[in-house]
Amino acid sequence: MSLDLPPDTTDTVWIGGRQADPVAESDDWVWDLSGQIVDPNLWYQGQPNDNGRGQDHMCLWKGENGLHDLNQVTQAIFVCETSGEYLLC
């Protein structure tokens, strides 16, 4: 399968997680669909760091084993779950 994506979006994938309460600057992160708390051991070293503030959404970066926080205006592909399978959308 080939993806035709702009060069600046190929290294980031949205995965459906967010900061539980960004206004209160909560340390809890949740999965959008289930609302379950994200295991803090899944984060990449030094993440989440809210670099520049407003990094309230969760993503994966190509070549790095762990979650990152990022602002919601960053363009990226995203992962969809359907019938237990995962697809790049």
Description:
By secondary structure, the chain is mainly β. The chain has a single domain (7-79), classed as Mannose-Binding Protein A, Chain A. It contains no helices and six strands. The chain has strands spanning 12-19, 29-31, 57-61, 67-70, 77-82, 85-88. Strands 1, 2, 3, 4, 5 and 6 form a six-stranded mixed sheet that branches. A hairpin with a 2-residue loop joins β5 and β6 (85-88). It is globular and about 35 Å long.
Task: Produce the secondary structure layout.
Layout: E1 12-19, E2 29-31, E3 57-61, E4 67-70, E5 77-82, E6 85-88
Parallel strand pairs: 1-5
Antiparallel strand pairs: 1-2, 1-3, 3-4, 5-6
Task: Summarize, please.
The protein is mainly β and 89 residues long.
Helix-strand string: EEEEEE
Which structural category fits the helices and strands?
mainly beta
Number of strands: 6
Residue windows where pLDDT falls under 50 for at least 5 positions: 1-5
Tell me the name of the CATH homologous superfamily: Mannose-Binding Protein A, subunit A
**Under the CATH scheme, which class?**
Alpha Beta
Taking Cα atoms only, what radius of gyration do you get, to the nearest Å? 13 Å
Report the total helices. 0
Span from first to last CA?
Answer: 12 Å
CATH architecture: Roll
